[in-house]
Design goal:
- This protein is α+β, with helices and mostly antiparallel strands.
- Among the domains are: about 10-205, Cytidine Deaminase, domain 2; about 280-365, Immunoglobulin-like.
- Helix content is about 30%, strand content about 25%.
- It is built from 10 helices and 16 strands.
- The chain has helices at about 30-40, 85-95, 125-135, 190, 205-215, 220-230, 240, 245-275, 330-335, 375-410, and strands at about 10-15, 20-25, 50-60, 60-70, 110-115, 140-145, 155-160, 175, 280, 285-290, 295-300, 310-315, 320-325, 335-340, 345-350, 360-365.
- The strands form 3 sheets. An 8-stranded mixed beta sheet has the order 1-2-4-3-5-6-7-8, covered by helices on one side. Strands 9-16-15-12-13 form a 5-stranded mixed beta sheet. Strands 10-11-14 form a 3-stranded antiparallel beta sheet.
- Strand 1 (about 10-15) and strand 2 (about 20-25) form a beta hairpin.
- It is extended, with a radius of gyration of 38 Å.
Length: about 425
């Protein structure tokens, strides 16, 4: 049984390139790996990227990370972890009030983490912008996790050097987080001080190599091979020394001829036509509801979208079918918001680029949108305003009729009087 009063155990990450030491609570990486794995399974193709705040304390040697809290992201621009204006406002509010929370009263924000499901361990431009805006301290760090097979993950810290620069293209020291294991090669720099950029050999490859070696037959040594070659031919069994039957040769010949013909046909097809190339390129797209409005977001980080010439959205909203044309700017933005009218909406995306078109399809299933509620007081006010406007119109008509009559009277010639009798 573990003693609850025992001090927590910490693991260290201290490559020689980092000007300070980073230590984290033993078990923290397992919690982050589970959060990243949850995001990986939340989206069918590529996973949904997640992020969070790292809390701890600053020591004389560097950082001591003890806990974390998630960062809310509505993924308005797709499955990548890019914060919207609303997300940034919520993050600013939370960081300002974190010290007032009971469980965070004795710690402070010392960095953040995020997952990359479609790129390697590096910091994108959007990641650097968030890093510099919200975690601009000299010792504030960024942790990137890349989920892998069997619920494992690769991870690495990013930091500011003595001059304040961030090496964002790659991590100086990666480490593995295996699912269900308590020990990771976080101190790889201690065992390989001269190779800080080298990665520890993945444990799953160790296991695969060991299992494959166990299944291979033993390799004969030189002595046994020489003895086998010098053994008399009489020691072989009659089945091994007997020549093959004529019937077996004919049967193999009849089998080999069709195989050779199929190989020749396939060779002619690929040499003339080349390998089949799909005419379209699929991309990721999400469809979600926000206050009765349908938010359609696709992967705006695709490099093909830089030269997008536009596109269209085909939407089946219950019984209504409609097509929405996209301008080049809308295609590059990667999101569009529409009002939905039913509980089931199907969306198909087609974007025109310089190369193959980018296509995607998604479906939304949820509750039917609620009709706007009408307030009785508002209805009475509108009815009263309508009556007043009608009265104004009637009075304006009467004034116009009087003015028209006066105008006609002014324009008619005066009547001539008869001359007096003489």
């Amino acid at each position: 049984m573990t003693d609850a009063s025992a001090p927590p155990v910490f693991d260290k990450w201290e490559p020689r390139e980092c000007p300070f030491t980073i230590e984290y609570r033993h078990g923290l990486m397992q919690e982050l790996r589970a959060a990243v794995a949850y995001g990986q399974q939340a989206f069918t193709r590529g996973g949904m990227e997640v992020g969070g705040i790292l809390f701890g304390n600053r020591t004389a040697q560097g950082l001591s990370i003890t806990m974390w809290r998630p960062i809310g992201c509505e993924h308005a621009r797709g499955p990548t972890f890019v914060l919207s204006e609303r997300d940034r406002a919520e993050l600013t509010k939370f960081l300002a009030s974190a010290a007032t929370l009971p469980d965070l009263a004795e710690v402070q924000a010392v960095g953040w983490f995020l997952s990359h499901t479609r790129s390697d361990l590096s910091l994108r431009e959007s990641d650097l912008a968030l890093y510099n805006e919200f975690f601009s301290g000299v010792t504030d760090v960024a942790l990137v996790l890349r989920p892998g097979r069997h619920n494992a993950a690769r991870a690495g810290f990013f930091f500011r050097d003595a001059g304040g620069a961030i090496q964002s293209d790659c991590c100086v020291l990666e480490f593995n987080i295996e699912a269900g294991e308590d020990v990771w090669p976080a101190t790889h720099a201690e065992t390989h001080p001269g190779h800080a950029r080298e990665l520890p050999f993945p444990p799953e490859r160790h296991r695969a190599s060991a299992s494959a070696a166990a299944e291979l037959p033993p390799m004969p040594d030189a002595t046994s091979a020489t003895a086998a070659q010098s053994a008399p031919a009489a020691a072989a069994s009659p089945a091994e020394t007997a020549p093959p039957a004529v019937g077996s040769r004919r049967s193999w010949r009849w089998i080999a001829l069709p195989i050779a013909a199929l190989v020749a046909i396939a060779w002619l097809h690929f040499t003339r036509n080349g390998p089949l190339d799909p005419p379209e390129t699929p991309i990721d797209m999400t469809v979600m509801d926000r206050d009765g409005q349908l938010v359609i977001a696709w992967d705006h980080a695709r490099p093909e979208l830089r030269a997008a010439r536009g596109g269209r959205l085909s939407i089946v909203d219950g019984p209504v079918r409609k097509d929405v044309s996209l301008t080049p700017e809308q295609a590059r933005t990667g999101s569009l918001t529409l009002v939905r009218g039913s509980a089931a909406v199907q969306v198909s995306l087609h974007l025109e680029t310089d190369g193959k078109p980018l296509v995607a399809s998604a479906q939304f299933l949820g509750a039917a949108p609620q009709a706007p509620r009408t307030n009785a007081a508002d209805v009475d006010a509108l009815r009263k305003e309508n009556l007043e406007l009608r009265g104004e119109v009637d009075r304006a008509k009467a004034r116009a009729e009087r003015a028209e009559a006066a105008l006609k009277a002014a324009q008619s010639p005066p009547a001539t009087s008869a001359p007096p009798n003489q």
